[in-house]
Write a structure and sequence with these properties.
Blueprint: H1 3-6, E1 7-12, H2 14-24, E2 35-43, E3 46-54, E4 60-63, E5 66-69, E6 73-81, H3 88-105, E7 112-118, H4 124-131, E8 135-139, E9 158-164
Parallel strand pairs: 6-7
Antiparallel strand pairs: 1-2, 2-3, 3-6, 4-5, 7-9, 8-9
Length: 166
């Protein structure tokens, strides 16, 4: 059995995702109520991380000469792995994408997926996204989020990746 086949995704409640983020993502200590779904990342029946899907805080976006409205775009907003485990994040994200699209995406009118990965994480995660049909469309610059509290993670440039749904 291939490694990726041993990784599975379970829907988890907001408070469980929050506990994972609090323990392993201390720079983001809140879990906004605007999230659509939280996925638990499991390997050999052990919960090792979480991914949260939500609408991004944007009105619209142009991609491949098509304009997408904010409610047609969903973001993999947090990808948090609680252990140092090579390839777990990329395998889990691939499974989470499949599950999200199958169970939530099409019924909500989602046409575009978005994620941001730290630009210095240019190894397996970026490759895994590319292999699943994602396209890196640029990088964000460092900067804080206006009216929200300053967070250290916002000082890191991020690679912006998009994937259209057909």
């Amino acid at each position: 059995m291939r490694f990726a086949e041993r990784v599975h995704i379970e829907s988890i409640p907001r408070h469980v995702a929050g506990a994972i983020y609090e323990a392993h993502h201390s720079y983001m200590d809140d879990v906004p109520r605007t999230n659509l779904v939280h996925h638990g990342l499991c390997y050999q029946d052990q919960l090792l991380g979480a991914i949260t899907w939500r609408y991004p805080l944007i009105r619209s976006l142009e991609y491949d000469e098509t304009r997408f409205e904010g409610d047609e775009i969903v973001k993999a907003a947090r990808i948090c792995i609680g252990v140092d485990f090579p390839n777990l994040a990329s395998a889990a994200l691939a499974r989470s994408i499949e599950r999200f699209v199958r169970r939530h995406g099409r019924g909500r009118g989602v046409r575009l997926l978005l994620t941001l990965v730290r630009a210095d994480f240019d190894g397996s995660m970026i490759k895994a996204l590319r292999n699943k049909g994602w396209h890196c469309v640029g990088k964000t610059g460092p900067g804080q989020a206006g009216i929200r509290p300053d967070k250290q993670i916002r000082e890191q440039p991020k690679a912006v990746s998009l994937r259209g749904l057909s």
